[in-house]
Amino acid sequence: MKHPLGRRDFIGGLIAGGLSLGLMEKLLAMSKLPPGQSIYSLRGKVYVDGVMANIHTPVTARSTIRTGPSSEIVFAVGGDAFTVRENSQLKLKGKTSKTVELLRVLTGAVLAVYARGPKKQIRTSTATIGIRGTATYIESEANRSYVCTCYGEAILTSLADSSISETVRTRHHESPRYIENIPGGGTRIVKAPVINHTDAELSLLESLVGRIPPFEEDDSYGAY
Predict the structure, then answer these.
(1) 40 and 86 both lie in a single domain
(2) Backbone angles phi, psi at 213, to 5 degrees
(3) How far apart are CA 31 and CA 62, in angstroms?
């Protein structure tokens, strides 16, 4: 649910919502990850390129990340940062080890923020999403994908039928969508609620790559 909070109330609201003061202070004070370090945090069973990861495991723009039950990883590659939820598989592709050009969310859920620059493409079970310098939350299921363009612009296109497409331009989570395969054939793009991700998580990801999200610069945004 959206709350009409200004920036002065934002931190208090996050703490009241369950984020500890210590973590909030750490988040706000944080800049970039230490040189050479990709992973900010991980818990449970997380595999990078088929090997169980630890905090020092490198992640590149050509890595595959897989998480088990009750597991999660938060990491950065170049100017992009990601949270991969439990029971998820994410495959990254890029011409260099530091520049992600394609993300394949094979299963599960991924929250991500992206640097401005060349366009990137996200592929899920049912959609392709063209983005540039934005933030997205994706859930990929067998016959349905959830896409929230948290801020910025994205072009959502059915993987099965490229004629079914929608361009969304959002300021603050205004246009979440489901891209669904219809039983018996066909695809549709329909409105969806904001689910399973928060502004606090976006702030953390942006901080890992030395940025702040737009809602922290403007009291008129409110908070999720």
Answers:
(1) yes
(2) -75, 160
(3) 24
Per residue in 111-149, pLDDT (tens digit) is: 999 999 889 999 999 999 999 889 999 999 999 999 999
CA distance 46 to 134: 26
Distances (CA, A) of 67 to 72, 90, 153, 203: 6, 9, 28, 22
Q: DSSP H helical segments within the chain, as ranges?
A: 7-16, 21-29, 199-208
* 77: in domain: yes
Domain-located, residue 160:
yes
Dihedral sign from CA coordinates of 14, 109, 102, 48: positive
Show the tokens assigned to 25: 């202070």
- Report the domain count for the chain: 2
CATH number at residue 106: 2.60.120.1440
> Residues 189, 172, 59, CA angle at the centre, nearest 5°?
85
Q: For 32-78, how does the pLDDT look when each residue is reduced to its tens digit (9 = 90+)? A: 788 889 999 999 999 999 999 999 999 999 999 999 999 999 999 99
User: Do the bridges between strand 46-48 and strand 64-67 make them parallel or antiparallel, or are there none, so unpaired?
Assistant: antiparallel
Residue 223 falls within a domain, yes or no?
Answer: no
Q: Are residues 47 and 8 in the same domain?
A: no
Q: DSSP character for 79?
A: T
Question: Quick one: residue 49, left, alpha or beta (phi over 0 = left, psi -120 to 50 = alpha)?
Answer: left
78 and 116 Cβ atoms separated by less than 8 Å? no
- State whether 2 and 74 are in the same domain: no
